[in-house]
Here is the input.
Amino acid sequence: MKLSYECGPCFLRQAREAMDLSTDDEILKMEIMNELFIFLSDNFKFGANSNGTGSAMHQLIKEKTGCSDPYYTQKVEGNEIALKLLPEVKKILNEDESLENYVKVAITGNILDFGAFTLEDDIEGVIRQALNKNLAVKDIEEFEESLKTHDKVLYLVDNVGEIVFDKLLLSKIKEYGLDITIAVKSEPIINDACRQDALDAGLDEYGEIVEIGCGTVGYVDSKISEEFRKIFNEHKFVISKGMGNYEGLTEVDLSYKDVYFLLCAKCDTISRDIGVNLQDMLLLKK
Here is the structure.
């Protein structure tokens, strides 16, 4: 996706949070913010890539502060929230074991996003509310047909914590007999899942874990490794979790693939682009 004017305040909010999590040096934070203003003055323009711009800002903060994983504590917190809610979620699935319900639970996990929500938000409360909502868009029949038609699937995960709920959907997908490849980030970025996070959550029980070759906000086609590009091109069936992957993949030719986006629309720009309301949850074939 391309930048909208609303991305500007969001970038600055994320930058403030990342700096506060990385250093207590107020002088350094002033210097970094000044550099970010200069960067945005040169790069915040119509036609610019939203994921690429956000990734560059987070990389600058990491380099200047020397903190390679600013959101480490928040990732631990995200896992704790997911594990705390897991018994409730499993009870919901025991009462309704439909594919749609497993998809909804996985999408609910997408709320565990410290890129979209602030650190002060009651994320646990928002998740509990979402568990009682229906999907606003649910291309479930097409999704199940893809599960029955293809012999393998590429699953692009998003956030730590969220992957606890992804594991439940992966177990359901495995019932269809597909080989599953699970793609994670190669380096920390916000609270996105890396290899060790996926291993800790036990995702390797259901498929091979691969790295995309970079640590970008969502999917940035110009930054992925050639090894992952080959994997991506070989898969005709892709499940994409989260807004960042949606933003990135909308700029890629997907005409030869069955691609399903599972996300909660947590910002106005994404909501308008898809044509849904803020906080809507969707399973969208695109």
About this structure: The chain has a mean pLDDT of 92.
